[in-house]
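Hey,
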Amino acid sequence: MTAGKPQHLTLRINGDNVDVLAPAHWTLLEILRYKLALTGSKQGCDKGDCGACTVLIDGEAQLACLLLAHNCVGKEITTIEGLAGPDGLDPVQDAFDKTGALQCGFCQPAMMLSARALLARDNDPNREAIDDALGGNLCRCTGYTKIIDAVLLAAKTLRQSDGQ
């Protein structure tokens, strides 16, 4: 890839193939926010410290500010805008609402996506597993208690829907 010439990319975002033209050096975060207006992924530190840009790549929480967009071709990208399904909110989104885990909202999309990645691999996490999964997401508004409560509630909801 040449740095100065825009590149054509086809990305799979929230279940849809999306064609974009962008400089080769652009990150996935820049594509999401500035080409596609998917602003749920926040631009915070731009160096991987705050976690506000977290998205799911093939189901795993990843920092979009550190990923070159061209390296995401062929992968399934999920942003907060794609988390809810045709039947309504994802259980994680619903649990954040029910527990009052939402504060200013800046970090919440990333927190929810990190929680969703955790619950996809462990539907009965303990507090230590939740702390670890959310460890890369900083929140300046809360003490994390309600966020952890939300993840525990979402896990319970998912287990009940699976008949466990």
